[in-house]
Amino acid sequence: PPFSLVFFFLKTKESFFLSPPPPPPPPPSFTLQNKTSILRRGKKRESRPPPIFTFLVHFFLFFSQNLVHQSLEIGRTAEQEAQNGAGIQFFSPPQKKKVESWMTGGGGNDASYPLCEGTIDQVKYIPVRLTIEERKRQRLLRAAVSASRYTDVVDTPANEKRRLTTILKEQYNLYLGTYVADVQPMERGLQMCGEPELSRAEGMITTLFELSRRYKVMNPETMRCDYGKLLFIMQDSVREEVKEQLGFNPMKPIVTVHSRAVELGVEDLLSEPELALATTPVPRLSRIQNLNVALRKKDKTVARLVAKYARRGSKLEDKVEQLIRSIDDANCYIRDNSDTISAMITELKMHFSPHSAEPGLALAISEGVEGSRLSHEHEKQYHFVLQSLTLWKNITKHMYKLWLLMEVDLLSEDNPYSLEDTGQGFNRKQQAPQLYDAMQGILEMTKQEVSVWVGSDKVHIGDHQVPNGYNFIEKYTQTARIINPILKTVQAIDTIAKDPEHLAYIKDVWATPEVLKKSILCDFFRHGFDGSGGDNDMDAGSCIDGRLTSAWHWCSSIKGKPFYPIFLLAGFGSFDGDFT
């Protein structure tokens, strides 16, 4: 029988196969009288199985018993070896030697994969994964913020005294309602309804705000509308007038892997040589055997680190594993998003050359032609696109550091904001010095990587184009949303071309599927990086912010492109994703 069935029955009832088969029931006695009555009722007489069938059945039962005995023996041996620190040996001696060679670093390149060692240096900025109970609690504040109209009534042109009154009213109602809904018993929360200040709710409110912010950083695709509102509520709460009236400040730093490790006294874990292997996502290896070995090796490494820093069965054991898994989560996010941009860089280098261009596929752009606001020859535009994509990739790799520095700048008591009309409505204009310095470091690193820099290197933060650090981070968390649909469409063209009618359409318009791929990429590389998208000529250009603005402008005009039907055939819905 299949091994899965054998082990299933072993797990449920070891004696299922081990007990001898029941004796066959005695054959019914047939007489002429009862045989005639059976035939009259329309039933046929059951015939005996042929001898060869009986032999096969007995052989099958005998084989099953032997197999089960061997399986039980393997299970008992594995259990004993597991207690002694060993494991089941699934390989023959030559295979075992080969696998052990790879697991110790002596294998071939087809089985190994690079480790995410650089991310460990960012543990001061990587948030700790939420527990199940923490996830439940933060939903309450998210629901309250979602139902609130805070920014609609607060960020309006009014005198400062009236605006302060509105801020106090909205925040008092939000905090009090959240406290009453969370505290148990509810009568205890209702007792605060008549009190002028909410100092007793400080611990609960502070914790909920920290959990919600940490959840957003770990899951950037969530709270796309409510996260900004939540930050602006906290931004107003750090003002002296508000803190004095409410009686507390909900500001609390996000719990990171480093801060939690220091709190638990296991900061040496962060310098473990094996931590890189335990926190690196296993890629899609070409051979399933190598994939299984890599997954088992990673799990064993995690278990070994947990056992080293926590006593078995203690609460610390779960917390140490939570730290390791949090770094793993961060690596998954960075890998998925940076690999998307790296794949687009690969498409650029594979289909285009900086030194020459195919007829009709040149990347050159001219100001005033097809909406372009820049003039670049083919080679210059090639390097402009390459350095822009490389910059986006490096920003993605340092996103957690940039994100937490943005919150520090935005929620600083010494860094007030001003409500101004930036041409796109009233926005909170505020400088972000720490975020700006970090961006300058990433920019210098990108310049060294690409060796050739084209255009402006100005970073806009705290002006009418990018009013504050939150707007900056919100823009650069969307780069994968721009690139992913384009890559999926280009990769789906070969599948689409297998349909005769689709292939006839492609040949009629683009001659070949390969030309169609290059046409889509060429249009994006030209008009997704042409300086367009600004409100006026002063806002357009080649600055750091303008490159991403041009890409979004290209996305907004996708329906007018000749290849838009190909996007639809590839399953394209939108670039913007889901806001729920």
Q: For this entry, what is the oligomeric state of its chains?
A: single chain
- Morphology call: globular
How would you characterize the largest beta sheet? 2 strands, antiparallel
Count of β-strands = 2
- The number of helical runs is 25
For the CA atoms, what is the radius of gyration?
Answer: 33 Å
* Strand/helix succession: HHHHHHHHHHHHHHHHHHEEHHHHHHH
Structure class: mainly alpha
Strand proportion, as a percent range, falls in: under 5%
What can you tell me about this protein's structure?
- The chain has 580 residues and is mainly α.
- The protein is 59% helix and 1% strand.
- It has helices at residues 3-12, 15-18, 32-40, 51-83, 93-103, 132-147, 150-154, 160-182, 186-190, 202-218, 226-237, 240-246, 257-264, 275-278, 288-309, 315-351, 378-397, 399-410, 433-450, 469-476, 479-496, 500-510, 513-527, 544-556, 564-569; strands at residues 418-421, 426-429.
- Strands 1-2 form a two-stranded antiparallel ribbon.
- β1 and β2 (426-429) form a beta hairpin.
- The radius of gyration is 33 Å and the shape is globular.
- Residues 1-19, 28-46 and 68-111 have low confidence and may be disordered.
